Amino acid sequence: MAALLRTMITTAPRPDRATLLNLEREARRKGSGIQADQLQGCWRLQTTWNRSGAPSTPGTDACLRAFDACLILTVSPELDSPQSEHIQIENRVQVAGFRLSFQGAAQLKGNRPLLFFSFNRVQLEVADKVWFSKAIDTPSIQRMPFFALIHLDPSQGLLIARGRGGGLALWNKRSIESE
Asked: Is residue 7 packed enough to be buried (19+ CB in 10 Å), middle (13-18) or exposed (0-12)?
């Protein structure tokens, strides 16, 4: 129970709406400068906001933290092109020995940049044993989901991004090794 409560409480600084929108405006104007290798790791979802920057529905963030919602990005150089990276993406929730994950590939594009991704597998694990795994269809290029990467603060382990649907999210970094 104590572990569950710890995941519900965050010490992450929560930027106010004005700060979020200023960071986003700056990223649109100049780009955020975020590189693929800076994204490597496990990003724990802390806070979400709607399209306009208002806080999400009460209880949503606490529920996502209780289910240990995280985005895991694993970056490795492409063998055929040293200038580009291959990014594996996993979006998952877990509680009491159950883990539901969506796995796939991602690609960083542009100056802002945008992290385009698609999931090609859904998997359910119980007590670290795979109980269900199924390939899923990837969307067309025009419907591919993405995160517009707004701000990354390596010293505080913060990542802020806006999704294709318009919502904003703040993650805190935790190393993959501590998984």
From this structure: middle
| Cβ atoms of 123 and 132 closer than 8 Å | yes
What would the mean pLDDT of 130-134 be, rounded to a whole number?
A: 97
> Can you list the pairs that 136-141 forms with residues at least 24 positions away whose Cβ atoms lie under 8 Å?
136/102, 138/104
Q: Give 19's Cβ-side CA count (13 Å radius).
A: 7
pTM: 0.84
Distances (CA, A) of 123 to 133, 135, 144, 149, 165: 4, 9, 20, 27, 24
Cis peptide before 55 (omega within 30 of 0): no
- Is the per-residue pLDDT at 111 higher than 50? yes
Q: Which CATH code fits 2-178?
A: 2.40.128
Length of the chain measured in residues:
179
Residue ranges of the domains in the chain?
Answer: 2-178
Q: Which residues contact 22 (CB under 8 A, 6 or more apart)?
A: none
